UniProtKB/TrEMBL annotation:
InterPro entries, per the entry: Anti-sigma_ant, STAS_dom, STAS_dom_sf
Domain annotation STAS: ranges: 17-118
Pfam families assigned to the protein according to its UniProt record, in alphabetical order: STAS (PF01740)
Name the record gives this protein: Anti-sigma factor antagonist
Length: 126
C-alpha cells in the first residue's frame, strides 16, 4: 500500500541568492515523486541554481524519487548549478550508493558543509 502525496512535506529556506535548501520529510516513492519534482523544478524556475536537499527526514526512497532528483540535477547542470544531498537516512544513503548516484551528486553531512561546497564551486568558476 502506498502513501498519499500529502504524507510528503517540503520546507524551503533561501540562505543566500541562488541557493535553496529544501527540507524533505516523508517517503519519496511513486505517489510523492511528482510533487517532489515540482518543488525542485520550481526552485530552478525561480532563479535558484543550487538546490540543497536535506533528506534526514526521508525514511524511504524508490526509483521514482531518485529519478526526480536526477532530472533536476540534469536541469541544474545546464545553468550551471548543482543539486546536493544532505544527511540522507541510512536506507536512502544505501539507494544512492547502490545506484552510484552518490558518486555523481555531492552528499554532505550538514547544510553548512553543502553551502561550503557551493561556495568553493562558485569561486572556481569565477
Amino acid at each position: 500500500m502506498s502513501l498519499a502525496p500529502e504524507s510528503l512535506s517540503v520546507a524551503v529556506a533561501l540562505p543566500r541568492e541562488g541557493v535553496a535548501v529544501l527540507t524533505v520529510n516523508g517517503p519519496l516513492d511513486l505517489d510523492t515523486a511528482p510533487v517532489f519534482h515540482r518543488h525542485l523544478a520550481d526552485q530552478l524556475r525561480n532563479g535558484r541554481r543550487h538546490v540543497l536537499l536535506d533528506m534526514a527526514g526521508v525514511p524511504f526512497m524508490d526509483s521514482s524519487g531518485l529519478n526526480a532528483i536526477l532530472r533536476v540535477h540534469q536541469e541544474a547542470r545546464g545553468l550551471p548549478g548543482s543539486v546536493h544531498v544532505i544527511a540522507p537516512a541510512p536506507a536512502v544513503r544505501r539507494v544512492l550508493d547502490l545506484t552510484g548516484v552518490s558518486l555523481t551528486l555531492p552528499v554532505s553531512d550538514s547544510v553548512d558543509d553543502a553551502l561550503a561546497l557551493v561556495s568553493r564551486a562558485e569561486e572556481e568558476t569565477s
